[in-house]
Each structure stands twice: as structure tokens, then as C-alpha cells.
Structure prediction request, 102 residues.
Amino acid sequence: MTPEEFRTHGHALVDWIAEYLEGVEQYPVGSQVQPGDIRSMLPEHPPAEAEPFADVLADMDRVVMPGITHCSTRGSSPSSPPTSPMRRSSATWPLRDLECRA
Prediction:
């Protein structure tokens, strides 16, 4: 990946996150899938070659987002805070600087 491609994909990801935050109130609070649903939508094996980044973001909307628990009020938490160091780390690493916003 060239630096320019990285920049383009990075901007696309930031836009995707910003659009999510702008419309978080449109999502149901609880997950809309049953255990195993997301796994069944994933291929058995990873792709042999890289997929277009737009396809990755589309998979986020199609596959991942239905399984997410959303919050739309500043400071709200859909569950109690993670207690183990691993849960704390994995729960906060991707979006540690973002807050749920009304």
C-alpha cells in the first residue's frame, strides 16, 4: 500500500466513524443478532488477496454493526465497565478517545 492509498483509506475510515457518531441514535441499543450469526456471515477462509477497502467498510455495516451494542447518551454505558485488563484493553483500544454522544 502506498502512502497515498493509506491516507485515502484512513480518511475513509475516519469519515465512516464520524458518520456513525452523527447517527448513533438511529441504531437499536442492543445487538440485533443471535450467537453465531456474525460467524456464519464470514467466509470460512480469509481472502487470498486484499479486498478493496470500500468492501471492508461495507462488511462493517453489513456484518459487524448489527452485532454491536450502541449507546447514544454522553457517559452512558450499555453494560458495566470491563474489569479484567484484557477486557479493558480490547474494549477501549479501537475507540478509546471517542465518547458516545447524544
Q: What stands out?
A: DSSP finds four helices and no strands in the chain. The two ends are 37 Å apart (CA to CA). Residues 80-84, 86-90 have pLDDT under 50 and may be disordered. Residues 3-22 form the longest helix (20 residues).
